[in-house]
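Technical note accompanying the year-one report. For the benefit of new consortium partners, we illustrate the data format agreed upon in the data management plan: each record pairs a sequence with a structure-token string. No post-processing was applied to the example shown here.
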Amino acid sequence: MRMHPADFETRVDVSGLRRMPADLRQVKRAQEVFAIEAPKSFNIDLRDLSRETWYILPQTGDFLGEIRTNKFGTLTYSRSGGNAEDVTLFDRARKRAISLYASPSTLAARGPTYNEDDLRSYDVIDYNIDTVLYPDRQFIEGKTHLTLRIQADAAATLTLRLAEPLAVTSVVSNEFGRLLFFRIRNDDSLIVNLPVSAQRGATIALDIAYSGRLPSQALDRETVAVEAQDEDTDTDMLAKSEPNFLLSSRAAWYPQNVITDYARARIRVTVPEAYGCVASGQLSPGDISLRDAASGSGGHSYVFNANQPVRYFAVVVSRLTRVSD
């Protein structure tokens, strides 16, 4: 079980506990359980600063328990007051959520319906995503400039979503300079500390650099797939589709709000010479900078502008051939 120390006496009936001599076998077993289970939650990645394992405390009122069952293995029960559906039961081994719902106390406080905008501590106004993709290696190098407006009364930290395999190398703010950040292991959260609390209505610009291997996403119901027709006798004459490298909403391939919102964006994608790409927004061929022309990297750059707010952004890279204008 994981909880804030201040919640221990209210959640655990200490009257049933009795002092007894230490049993070395139980101590060893407890250490084994801690070594296995503790790194799964609230474990922050500080490998650049320390070899030790570091943890953050759960928020007051939050709770997490690992429940061992004979039939389903170990299941995880979580209570997180910062989420709209604050109770979760999931299976870590299969990466599957079993149940997600709002607790009675949350329903009593807000009612059965709610507005997601009221839950955001900040609102992203626009993105400037600059990324280099290597489809053969499924590797990404990115730098995203995002402008956000504080919606909470005050914010000392900003939590963003970024795919866990992507290693963040720097977070810089126009207002505060280089910022301290950390990541939670086995989680896609990126937590940025501000030197002073930002007040409601304040605008903050962040530049975040990151890189790492990110597997291509499979086609799903939100993407277009071509289905073969059994009655088509000319299938042998059809060219097979080229392999593609797809990044969309199923993986946070760029830093984004933890609560989905709509924002404008400029997306610049650089791919190897033999490849082309399509991304959210309108292709703007004339928007290529002198840096692109003079880089000599052997790649080709594409710029897409989403001038109307979009919920999420996607990009697909493949060996594309223009068939018409």
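Partners are asked to follow this layout when depositing records. Residues 119-227+239-318 form a domain with the Immunoglobulin-like fold (CATH 2.60.40.1730).
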